[in-house]
């Protein structure tokens, strides 16, 4: 499902996926907004944020970050910067502490990040892998 709005002239604006909302301690947060904040980092090429189960807060965000080619900073330095950016842009309510560097993200056939698969993997749940035979 997509979320958006219709302006006074009748134009429809698709802003985000409504199923990309996580509940962190009773606060509904857009994973897309967190991803946008992370993408302001000059070191990040791609990112996926998913909610993972947390016994205290219900869910907490996990950021999977792909570095741009040639980044010479340490992973710790990059991830600390990413955490700071999210705290500044989204606020402490995001409780954003978990971020990792990954070599690449799983994609659908259409080239979109397979967030549902990422979320299942991160939560330790079973997931299905589709194998495409091009031969």
From TrEMBL:
Q: Provide the AMP-binding enzyme C-terminal domain boundaries.
A: 34-112
Where is the secretion signal located?
none
Which is an annotated Pfam family here? AMP-binding_C
GO cellular component terms listed in the entry, alphabetical order: mitochondrial matrix
User: What EC class is this?
Assistant: ligase
Q: Tell me, what is one Gene Ontology molecular-function annotation carried by this entry? A: acetate-CoA ligase activity
The lineage's top-level taxon is: Eukaryota
Enzyme Commission number(s) of this protein: 6.2.1.1
| Gene3D superfamilies per record | 3.30.300.30
Q: Which PANTHER family match?
A: ACYL-COA SYNTHETASE (PTHR43347), ACYL-COA SYNTHETASE SHORT-CHAIN FAMILY MEMBER 3, MITOCHONDRIAL (PTHR43347:SF3)
Q: Could you tell me what this protein is called?
A: acetate--CoA ligase
| Organism of provenance | Magallana gigas
Q: What is the lineage of its organism?
A: Eukaryota, Metazoa, Spiralia, Lophotrochozoa, Mollusca
